[in-house]
Design goal:
Length: 331
């Protein structure tokens, strides 16, 4: 007997399911099996994860994702937590089996993450719902939320006091929360439309866009003990990201409006050197003498050797490179 032909739509659905890379456990990513150091780069303009081999300094994979990534943090040697403003959940990417799957529900709108290894805690800023989200993962997964002022963005952590600092762009404020209870301790006013925070030795380093009629060019050094700005450094236009070396001997400010990176001496809080990079640098990462800069509209990942403060490689990538994670010798 001749079987009737399968309807075209049903055939297409079965084909898509079989080739989607999804399993019953989640979405399978085709991460490379290598012992080399890898740089994972997310993109704000495409649901994409670029994989760069740092030994060869070239792209070896471009992996399609089910959503656009807003941030990523590595919580152990085998797991990365990923956020998206489009999804209701944070996602987990396991490096042993390459499975991407929902981790915990937080609500849409997460735009920045920070992981505190000592306490086993992920903090997240939700700019859509104006919330600070705390995800405790040491034992059971426990989620707590706290209302914030308008459009929370940058986060930094004070390990000496177990405190979280959160910049609220549209309310021009920086809020200070107890890391355990999420109780609001204080609200600081340092710069208009703050964006970019870094805790350093009882100081809060803050940048931002500034007032609409007069854009900001300064980095503000706020003393937590004196409760006032004690230094104000003129850098490039709109410094919005900061990173420090492992030994904390140098700080770097990323000015996305003037497409520059500034090297800062943290002892004197003075600018030492600057260098131009691609258009609209927006995210940075430091590792073993190399500063990695993603340029959101320059579509490059720039590698800067910090001793000589010179660019030694620019890697062209897909549009909108953003947050980065370095994986050391995964297998």
């Amino acid at each position: 007997m001749i079987m009737p032909k399968m309807p075209l739509l049903l055939t297409l659905v079965i084909f898509l399911i079989m080739n989607s890379g999804c399993t019953g456990e989640g979405h399978k990513l085709n991460l490379p099996d290598t012992k080399d150091n890898l740089l994972l780069v997310s993109h704000l303009k495409n649901p994409l994860l670029t994989v760069i081999d740092l030994n060869e300094q070239e792209i070896i994979r471009e992996l399609e994702l089910p959503f656009i990534v807003s941030d990523m943090v590595k919580i152990n040697e085998n797991e990365i937590i990923i956020s998206s403003q489009q999804t209701d959940s944070l996602y987990s990417l396991r490096l042993d089996d390459h499975i991407l799957e929902p981790f915990v529900e937080t609500g849409k709108g997460i735009n920045e993450l920070i992981f505190i290894e000592k306490t086993g805690t992920v903090y997240a800023a939700n700019s859509l719902k104006n919330e600070l989200v705390k995800v405790s993962i040491q034992d059971d997964i426990i989620v707590n939320k706290k209302n914030t002022e308008e459009h929370p963005s940058s986060l930094t952590y004070n390990p000496d006091r177990d405190e979280i600092y959160l910049a609220n762009v549209y309310d021009h404020s920086i809020q200070r929360f107890d890391g355990d209870s999420l109780e609001l301790i204080d609200t600081l006013t340092i710069v208009d439309r703050p964006n970019g925070l870094l805790y350093y030795d009882q100081h809060l380093i803050a940048g931002g866009h500034g007032a609409t009629e007069e854009l900001n060019r300064d980095v503000f050094i706020f003393s937590l003990s004196e409760k006032e700005t004690v230094h104000q450094l003129t850098t490039g236009l709109m410094p919005i990201d900061f990173v420090k070396t492992d030994d904390s001997e140098r700080l770097y400010a990323i000015s996305h409006g003037s497409h520059e990176v500034y090297e800062i001496d943290p002892e004197t809080f003075s600018v030492l050197r600057k260098i131009e990079v691609g258009f609209n640098p927006y995210s940075s990462l430091y590792h073993s003498g190399t500063l990695f800069i993603s340029t959101l509209d320059g579509h490059t990942v720039t590698l800067i050797e910090t001793e000589d403060f010179q660019i030694y490689k620019e890697i062209a990538v897909a549009p909108g490179p953003h947050t980065m994670i370095l994986l050391e010798g995964i297998k």
